[in-house]
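Open question from group meeting: does this chain pack into something compact, or does most of it stay loose? Before anyone orders reagents, we agreed to write out a predicted structure and look at it together. Recording both the input and the output here so the notebook holds the full record.
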Amino acid sequence: MKNIKKNLKYLLNFLFIAVIFWLTFRLLFSGQEFSEILSDLHMADVRWLGAGLVLAFMFVAGESAIIHYMLRILGQKTYFLRCLKYSFIGFFFSYITPSSSGGQPAQMYYMKKDGIKIGFSTLIMLLITIAYKAVLVLLGLGFLIFNYGFVKDNVGRLGWLLILGFILNILFIAALAFIFFKPLWARKAGIKIVNLLTGWRIVKPKNNEKYVSKIMRICDTYIMGSEYIKENIHTIVNIFLITIVQRLSLIAVTWVVYKAYGLSGHSLLEILALQTMINVAVDMLPLPGAAGVTEGSFMVMFGNIFGDDLVKPALLLSRGISFYAVLIAGAIVTLAAHIIVLRNDKKFADANGSNEENNKVINEKE
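Structure tokens returned:
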């Protein structure tokens, strides 16, 4: 029953993204013939769009490189293609769950199915989370500082959303740092908060123990991560460098679309700055794939960059390459991986059943 509810939730989130995409498409191109839309899209240079797909793949492969790198250090031999599978699965579930909450649990599940110890996968996911969030905020602050005037001119009425994004991301990193450096304090504080919420009937009494256990497990994980980082600074630096390249690969897709339309007048850094602001603004929003908000933010921030005629097709191409292409590829990889897992589980069950039957026959003969 629990798995059915979880799968239903994933399906509803996936449908939510599909509906948002359809509504966005219809709102953007209301009054236009489909042939006109295709004509606008065909104006883009296919070679540049191909480069965009390569960048999107590099984004996924960047996380795969970190997973592969960490598994080797931890003495777990595995192929890079298998790590690529984990990344596609992770991004698929991240894109269809609020605040990307479903990605890492799914990755850890499939790692476990491949014989990777849960302690290793937990540590790797923890380090990836820290680097992924920290790099986004650092890139955001860097681009904002060095392109402040340009960003201010193009953010427009979404300035409040950008400020909220920075605040939420910084608070999240501060919470990570607190748990990381003071895990015992964090554990006590977390348990007190859960007990307080239980007393106020916000948390049901029957769920109190579950939440307390989860807090203790998270803090234990961060203790392990804290000890690892202190002893392996060189490894952490490498993870951060790979994450910077990974983040920039996806952010650069918008610049590729800009060049695909033969536009000029704005530098690579300016395009990267605006796209980073969008990522910061929507990253912590509790919406699957930040669907709807991302598209709206793009229309506002890049309206002057692409112009009224091209901003709509540019949005479809940029979002199509950086989000929907990864989502679709992730769905295909996830489906294939799940079929393989089901087959392996069936073989294992059949083998155990055969062994039990043999043992039963032997016992009867004796």
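Observations to bring back to the group:
Residues 311-365 form the longest helix (55 residues).
The two ends are 42 Å apart (CA to CA).
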